[in-house]
Design goal:
By secondary structure, this protein is α/β, with parallel strands linked by helices. It contains twelve helices and 17 strands. Strands 1, 10, 11, 12, 13, 14, 15, 16 and 17 form a nine-stranded mixed β-sheet that branches. The protein has an eight-stranded parallel β-sheet with strand order 2-9-8-7-6-5-4-3.
Length: 391
Amino acid sequence: MNASVDPVAPRLRALIGQGVDAIDTPALVVDLDAANRNLQRMVEFAARYRLRLRPHAKMHKSAQFARLQLQAGAVGLCVQTVGEAEALAAGGINDIFITNELLAVGKLRRVAALAHQLATRGGQLAIAVDSSEGIQRLAQAMRLTRAVIDVFIEIDIGQGRCGVPPGDAAVALARQLSDASSSLRYAGLQAYHGGVQHLRGVAERRQALAAAAERLRTTCAALAAAGLAPPLVSGAGTGSFGIEAASGLWGEIQPGSFLFMDADYLRNERDPAQPQFEPALFVKAQVISANAERVVCDAGHKSHAIDSGLPLVHALPGQPALHYANGGDEHGILRPAAPGGALPALGDTLWLIPGHCDPTVNLHDHLIVVRGGLAAGSVDTVVPVDARGAW
């Protein structure tokens, strides 16, 4: 990746050029070859449908991986917090969309300062709103700068989280936004349905997105009738972007997890309308205890998030199929996936696919990036998790 390494990590810096065996455990490892294949498939998909690709950086939280995505053809990055936006901007990323609502005065002042910083170097900041109060507070904060911020009205297309109801409520906010300070530019709609991403069946996802698309279509028509047609509709995630693309309503997609994938997404039935992605994020672990029925590894919940379930064990050629069970903060318990199956020996390496990549990355200071595969590859670089814990 030709990236610099965090200077405060000499032990990790010394790994560069060494084989994967030199990586101590537990460690968060990225298979760069797999990640690049995932990225290329996504870029090709977006180009085929003439969609803007704006990957979500809350997954990798890294300016270096953000640059990799921009170099491949992404138009910019999404984040969820102002801290994540600041971390990416500090790493040289110039086009950032905070796909979340912010109301705290202190955070909005930081947003204004960041908008100014990006504008001075030819960049652009965007943010989502879903309330009149949010627009007023943002306009007040932006008086601190002459910069212009792009503002997307978020509508609730079915998730039941943030967003105004479809239709008239969005029109009212668009009118207010158009009449607000000249530092606020009406940029379009934020229309994301996170709940759809993890519906297991393709038919379930398509049915849920059909209803979401109808809500979006109704809102776009109401806005157009009011002379406020949205310049852009942004949204979609790794589990559903193929459906949004086929609708013709979305102009920009925001998938994040596709780059690394995780066990939860791998449990979904694959939609043939989307490219197939492969796991690229792993927790390297070691067997530290063994008996005839089970082995214990050194990667527990402090090394991987469990909000979306326990990790899968990624068996390399010649390795037995294993099932991971809860062993607590520091340990994982592994048993054969089938009765009578083999177990690894003391000291053997295990590769775990985390249940949820985003919060797993947030547990680590660095990503150890490997080229040449997990079996015989070598460490290419060590990437700081710039936005770890960044609010």
